[in-house]
Write a sequence for this structure.
């Protein structure tokens, strides 16, 4: 059964308790150019919402820091991306961190390899960023996860190298004061996500998972981003849906996907997903409105702060 709700519902139903609990404390991702279009994030997001700032190759650090400062002044905890492969050297990383901390009070970071094939300098992985020691003292450090695999790393389609890296990060989490979590790529089916989280548990990787969810968007937009981001197994569901030309213009909403995970979490309280992380592919306002309408109006719980 396809885990989708493609019908537009102009009158949101009262959210059920499972979904409301699952969406509580969600985070969302922005880029400087999309943040510029939002007059005031306080009118869209619950108090305390963690806002990730995606660092796309070529984005000037001044724009990244200005966006972080603006969001911090509006009262939101900010988590910039640090893609290892676009950072040329330790001095540049130290400069970025000094500017983020000095101008925006940043004490949270998402560390990831980055989506480019050839490193700009000495860094190739998030582990190398951690090993610099420059993130010592940060309140939170999140790392990337790929529930449907990452063929850029495990070219044979397995999860061997990725799992080794996550075990290393688990060990690091046990000797640091920073709160750590895995923020994942967006997915569209619950079953592969549930299997992946269970595999982490079996491998003794206990880092909380913040599951990536694509916000409401046109189907064509989602397919474009899914292909460019390497989303795997669940992409076939989008492609199958796209074969029905009568439904190409009907917006996708993640209701059934998120509801399935929420139900599984309610039935299995120890299940490793702690939070939802939104990729607002159809727009920040559209995503925030959907989240509010479906139970995500509460702020961040203390254990996720």
């Amino acid at each position: 059964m396809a885990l989708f709700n493609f019908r537009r519902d102009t009158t949101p139903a009262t959210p059920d308790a499972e979904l409301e609990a699952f969406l509580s404390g969600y985070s969302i991702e922005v880029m400087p150019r999309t943040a510029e279009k939002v007059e005031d994030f306080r009118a869209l997001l619950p108090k305390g919402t963690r806002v990730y700032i995606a660092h796309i190759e070529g984005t000037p650090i001044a724009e990244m820091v200005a966006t972080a400062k603006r969001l911090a002044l509006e009262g939101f905890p900010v988590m910039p991306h640090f893609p290892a492969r676009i950072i040329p050297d330790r001095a540049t990383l130290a400069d970025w961190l000094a500017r983020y901390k000095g101008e925006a009070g940043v004490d949270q970071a998402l560390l990831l390899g980055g989506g480019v094939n050839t490193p700009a300098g000495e860094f190739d992985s998030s582990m190398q960023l951690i090993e610099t020691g420059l993130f010592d003292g940060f309140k939170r450090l999140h790392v990337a996860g790929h529930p449907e695999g990452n063929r850029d790393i495990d070219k044979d389609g397995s999860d061997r190298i990725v799992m080794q890296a996550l075990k290393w990060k688990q060990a690091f989490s046990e000797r640091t004061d920073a709160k750590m979590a895995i923020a994942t790529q967006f997915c569209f089916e619950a079953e592969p996500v549930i299997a992946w989280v269970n595999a982490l548990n079996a491998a003794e990787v206990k880092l909380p998972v913040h599951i990536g969810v694509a916000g409401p968007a046109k189907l064509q937009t989602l397919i474009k981003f899914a292909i460019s981001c390497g989303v795997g197994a669940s992409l076939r569901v989008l492609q199958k849906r796209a074969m029905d030309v009568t439904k190409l213009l009907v917006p996708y909403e993640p209701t059934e996907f998120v509801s399935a995970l929420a139900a599984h979490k309610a039935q299995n309280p120890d299940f490793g997903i702690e939070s939802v992380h939104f990729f607002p592919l159809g727009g920040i306002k559209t995503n925030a409105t959907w989240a509010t309408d479906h139970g995500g109006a509460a702020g961040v719980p203390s254990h996720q702060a």
About this structure: The first helix runs from residue 17 to 23. Strands lie at 27-30, 51-53, 78-83, 108-112, 140-145, 179-187, 209-214, 273-279.
